[in-house]
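Case study 2.
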Amino acid sequence: MKASNPTTAPDLVRDARQLYMSYWEAANRGAKRRNLDLLWEVLEAIREHGGRDYSLAEVGRRLEASGGPKTQSLRNAQGVHFREVITAYANAVSGSKKYLAKGRSQVEAALDLITDQSVRATLRMAIEEGKRLKVVNDNLHAAFKTLQVGAVQSPPTAPSAQGAITTDAAASPLTPRLRNALLKGIDRTRLAERGFIVPDDGSIQTEAGDAVFPAAFVTAIEAALREWG
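Prediction:
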């Protein structure tokens, strides 16, 4: 019998281990004892490798690969003891009893482990807000960088044959696309719809007061738009 020495088992899974041992001792067939041993080894392996998926699909797949019963056997009536051990172990290590699709991000997998729906919904909203914030941040940084490069590299305007000076619009480093990006980036109504504000100091902040762009950022863009618009 595996894990029969209480001193070698981690305290975190003590209750699950005791449940596994009670079913092992009550088993009247060697095959069931062997399968319970294999099940415990599978659960320990998932934990040791940092896994969080303790669904019947994942445990059954690993168990079958180790020579134990198939997933369907775990779902059947005779698999009730195996299911109870799996549930006890998953609860002890804060694992998920739902199948976690491979390829999902660690953040999404972690959210699935939160049982409180209100907490999970709040965290999802915060994550989505963070994604929107990153898009706005990246777009504004790119637009402002292009604006600075255009101002440095823009060649001086040569006078015409009649000595006339070209218009400000002709000398502007702003393309219509770039100008539109800057206008949208600092549009207060649009920012407010996404949870951002522009206080008197010209910065861009979240509603919680966290600065996304420093003081005078919006003011500088507005000045540039007036000068090169």
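The beta strands are 196-197, 204-206, 211-213.
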